[in-house]
Amino acid sequence: MKRRLPLIVVLVTAIVCMALKFLNLGERGTTLATDLDTIVQTSYLFAFLFGPIHLIRLHYSNVQKRRVNWAYSAFLVGVCAVCTVVFFINRIEGPVSTFIIDSITNATDSAIYAMLGFYVCSAAYRSFKLKNVEATILLIAAVILMLGQAPIGDAIIPNTSKFAQWILDVPNSAGMRGIRIGASIGAFAASIRVILGLERSWTGSGS
Amino acid sequence: MSVEQWSFIFKTLSILAAWSYLVKGDNPVYTAVEHFLVGSATAYGIVYTIQNQIVPRIVQDIIGRGKWGYIFGAILGLLIYFSFVKGQEWIARITMGFWIGYGAGYSLAYSPPVFLTQVTDSFINLRAGDFAKSFNNILYFLVVVSTLMYFAFTLKKDKGVLYYGSRFGRYALMVAFGSAYGSITMAYLSLIIGQLTIIFRDTLHLIK
Amino acid sequence: MDWKKLQWIDVRILYVIIVVCLLIPMFHPVGLPVAISDNTRLVYNTVESVPDGGVIWVSHDTGPGNAPELNPMIAALARQAFRKNCKIISTSLFNQTFGPVTTFEIIDEVAREMGKEYGVDWVHLGYRDNAWPATIRLMIENIIEGAINRDWKGEPLDQMPLMKQVKSIKDDVDLIFCTTVGSPGYADWMTYVSEPLHIPLTGGASLTMYSGVQPYIRSGQLKGFLGGLRGAAEYEQLVGVAGAGLAGMDAQSLGHMTVILFLVLGNIGYFAAKRAGKNQ
Fold first, then answer.
1. Which of A45, C89, C113, C255 ranks highest by number of CB atoms within 10 Å?
2. pLDDT reported for residue A206
3. 3-state secondary structure A38-103
């Protein structure tokens, strides 16, 4: 029962969703679809503390057991508590909240992500070697795109941007389409496996 | 100094703290801002959801308009917290099952038109009139087919059309990945440019 | 010279070189011309084809990471839309901390400059909890119900004049303009909104995803799509305002040349080491 019930819920919900799309159930169908959407939306909303509780439990346990870098965990829990109070008092659109989120949180997030730019440069230097035909094709396409997409490409070799655009439009687009078609078939198969209960790793019991 | 200027100073300090990782690897400054980021973002998420979504749903919809049916959704959402109760985790899976069924069901119902347009659009006119267009169309068709041949892992591809087709597909994929790499390089450089603009233009006013 | 050593340069030196190379053109801009691609023209024309006073749904689905690439697109779109007296309803569904504040600030700056009023000419719904596609399916039928009657600040939507005119995506929205860095993004808007309702979909993607959107542009499922900072720069030219997109193009040029130089150096070192190995 404990194992089967969630699988039955998946099957029934999926069948109802597909029926709502494919069958003409009239006014009742529309009402049912709206009710279902509202239930999903509301259930998501009320599950919003799931992530934060996990996070705080993890870091609280780090502090309690004095694990390596426990001080940072304490800092995180403290920041989370203080910011929650501040955001509640100031409201999320208030000047203090906006300052914290815009000037520190988002700025840090953006800066951490921008570090990938440095890693791409070092990857170009360290890993991009002309070892075989495939690597050579890959590198030539990359160089043409890099030249073609920056204005300097046309300044050095006229029409580089047009050639780069042709690579994007024809061979790249066709290759990506092949990947997309393959991936979509895979996604269909995965969805069907989940609905039929063949893929049940999410229940913690393996496939 | 204006609030805006203070904001740029804090942005610059955050950028430098994050980028300290590039010079010294994991270091106290980087780790501290990283933990601040996670802590403050979590707090923001909690308050945003309560202020803009949960309170209106309860006060306006359930109490105000008497839409008591919403309580069913709320209870379903609350069941997810049973995953923190030892021995009762299976109850949380009912909610997960509902979400997974909803996602998979609608995905199966709505994706085919998007996917099938991609398939039908690949059957293009190979004699399009002018040479350039015909050449592009033939190449396009061949690349799509050969890429699919490459991904057909269950077929034996040791000789004949399948061998050459999948080999051509592999080279075509390299062109696609190469152009993706070229594009990605540009994307990530844009991000560094964005950070440098904050430091040198907005904060230090060294660039116009 | 021992060419093999070219393989083992400290990466931190490379980091400094890339920063310096990006900074030089920022201090001394050259203003290299940026050719406008057909894709960008298609995006511009698609927005232009919305009837004057029509409604454009803008979904700035990005996080702080890719924002430098995609923010200029939203600023330029807001300018083009407001010039045509189009109304904007915006969401930002990808990131909870970025979605509410930053998207509001970008559009608000343009709106103030062009004398457009919040609530009358545009509304920002902000981030919505990621109950995809439930929330958006509800908004297709009734925007206020789907958004739980609140904008990003928590103000009631039913009090805003614009929301009295624009009731649902299905009946009242003329165009969807979304930026994309992942999911939710263009694929979700296409699957659940633009394809079933036949509403034109355009926008822009981070260049990390740009090669992946090409098949959809070709099939016409996307009415053109802007690619990263370059796409933003081209679009800014068409809209007729120089913004952050164009400003970054010179730095981009030298940055690319530097990466190509790194590629060459790495390969010289690799082949020198290979040759030395053979000789031994």
1. C255
2. 53
3. HHHHHHHHHCCCHHHHHHHHHHHHHHHCCCCCHHHHHHHHHHHHHHHHHHHHHCCCCHHHHHHHHH
Mutation target among C124, C262, C268 for the A interface, most CBs of A within 10 A: C262
**Residue pair A42/B77 in contact by the 8 Å Cβ criterion:** yes
The interface pTM score, or ipTM, of the predicted complex is 0.89
- The answer to whether the Cβ–Cβ distance between A174 and B172 falls below 8 Å is yes
Report chain A residues whose CB lies below 8 A from the CB of B77. 42-47
Of A20, A40, A175, the CB nearest to B176: A175
The pTM of the full predicted model, rounded to 2 decimals, is: 0.93
Looking at chain A, which residue has its C-alpha nearest residue C231?
Answer: A149
Answer whether C170's CB lies under 8 Å from C140's CB.
yes
CB C223 within 8 A of CB C203: no
* Cβ-Cβ contacts under 8 Å, A144 against chain C: none
Is B166 an interface residue toward A (CB < 8 Å)?
no
Q: Where are the alpha helices (DSSP H) in A65-195?
A: 70-90, 95-99, 106-126, 133-149, 151-156, 160-167, 173-195
Per-residue confidence (pLDDT) for residue B196, from 0 to 100? 96
Q: Across the interface, do B178 and A140 touch by the CB < 8 Å criterion?
A: yes
Per-residue buried b or exposed e for B96-105, using 16+ beta carbons within 10 Å of the residue's own CB: bbbbbbbbbb
Q: How far apart are CA B92 and CA B99, in angstroms?
A: 11
What's the pLDDT band for A205 if we cut at 50, 70, 90?
A: low
Return d(Cα B114, Cα C196) in angstroms, integer.
9
Extents of the domains making up chain B:
122-208
Domain positions in chain C are 3-30+251-279, 38-245
* Pairwise CB contact (< 8 Å): C129 & A48: yes
Q: C118 phi and psi, to 5 degrees?
A: -70, 135
pLDDT of residue C131: 75
Considering only the beta carbons, identify the residue of B74, B89, B170 that sits closest to A42. B74
Considering the four listed CATH numbers 3.40.190, 3.40.50, 2.60.40, 3.30.565, the one that applies to the domain covering C38-245 is 3.40.50
- Cβ atoms within 10 Å, residue C243: 20
